[in-house]
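Supplementary Note 2. Why include the ligand at all?

Several targets in our set were suspected to adopt different conformations when bound, so apo predictions alone were not considered sufficient. For every target with a known small-molecule partner we therefore ran a joint prediction. The input for fe (ii) ion is given below.
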Amino acid sequence: MPTKVNLAGPKGQLYADPVPTTDEDAFQVNNTSAAYYKSPYYLANMKLVQPIPPPRAGAPSHLDLADYLPADMIAAINSAGSITFHSTGDTGAAKVSAQQSAATALADEASVADAMAADVRTSGANTPAFFFHLGDVVYNFGEAQYYYDQFYEPYRAYDRPIFAIPGNHDGMVFGASSSAPQVPTLTAFLNNFCAASPAPSPEAPTIARSVMTQPGVYFTLDAPFVSIIGLYSNVLDTGGGIISSQGGKYPIPDVQLAFLTAELTRLKPQRQAGQRAIIIAVHHPPLSCDVKTGGSGGLMQDIDSCCKNAGLWPDLLLSGHAHLYQRFTRTVNGRQAPYIVCGSGGFAATAPMTGTPPAGTVVGDHKLEIAPIIQFGYLTITTNGKTLTASFNSAPRNAPAKQLDSVTVNLVKGVLTAGGSAPAPAPAPKPAPKPAPKPKPTPKPAPKPVQKPVRKPAQKPKRPVPKPAKGGAKNKAR
Ligand SMILES: [Fe+2]
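The joint prediction is reproduced in token form.
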């Protein structure tokens, strides 16, 4: 393969190897961390939230993409009048079982990473400018020694910056042995994504990609035409996302509520002037119809309260954690916004444990637009500040990536202009409102979704599916 000239950021950042090697088919460091799931240490900590590391001293809470891409690329984006970028979550390759070898796990992650790298090489004027990772970079416990196999090697040919919010696996605690003392939460994530300056990663010194210089585990990325506010939803594998104390229920400060409100307030004038779209990204989904991941009601309430306080709601909300693709439309104050779950980045695509509501099901203020897609893949998002399109591309092994879903929002009017209005499966023979594709958010009592009738009256009540109720219950390794 000929050597090619790769990007260098304005602060000397490097992103891709000039001559990428072929994909790995074996781990450089054999992944044995699943053993910690049975350790006394993990069992004692699995239901506890972990501290939120404070942002790096003196670092502003928002990043400017212009500090990561060459000036001519930023100028080209501004001149084109729109920006395109990638997003997905749950990319690590670790799950080895009777059904899956290390080679298969690595190939699943590589299929997504390679498809995204190919987009960067071949997309011409719409070349994605960066990848915003939705968390769970490294399984199972975010260990430093697995960053090479699960992050740097798979993305060695991706010639763009990669920003990330941590997922629960990145922050889960572990010890040096199955009953050993704690390694502080997020240690490796902070070293690799929140470093003070760009440099080769201590975990992957043979790979060109520089460590990222985010201010902390919650931050905003300001790019031309879009801002992405990233939140850290802590480490619970079962129990949903937690960004605050929730009124004293959890022993963490409410710093992210203040941060989110302040960032929405800061960005509001530009949003109202039609200059940029506002996206919120958080690893655990506030809405999910996968019973194993559920929705996170407290998380949704926290985000909503900040939006109310700031008087600004997101144009799109992105999550991972559930290893599949789901798309809801949420309607607030008469405005529609997609809430997308895309935890399809390479780790164990998982079908919902029980049935899911049919596409078109409406519950409260949100509607499931399509049946969940249980395939590995990633999002390509394009916006000019006035419209926004998010497309899900599957990236199967040994086959070309293929777009399987797409939604477009008119940000000025707050309506979906494509990809919405899947027919509700309501029994009611309602007169079709209008031929126009305007999905009327009639909050009618939704056909009871998904959840099969609870079997035993004495059982703990099961979560009403996509409704944002209490934190979601699910299996491990999300
Ligand atoms: Fe997760």
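Residues 136, 167-169, 283, 321, 478 surround fe (ii) ion (CB under 6 Å). Confidence is low (pLDDT under 50) at residues 423-477. Comparable summaries for the other entries are listed in the accompanying table.
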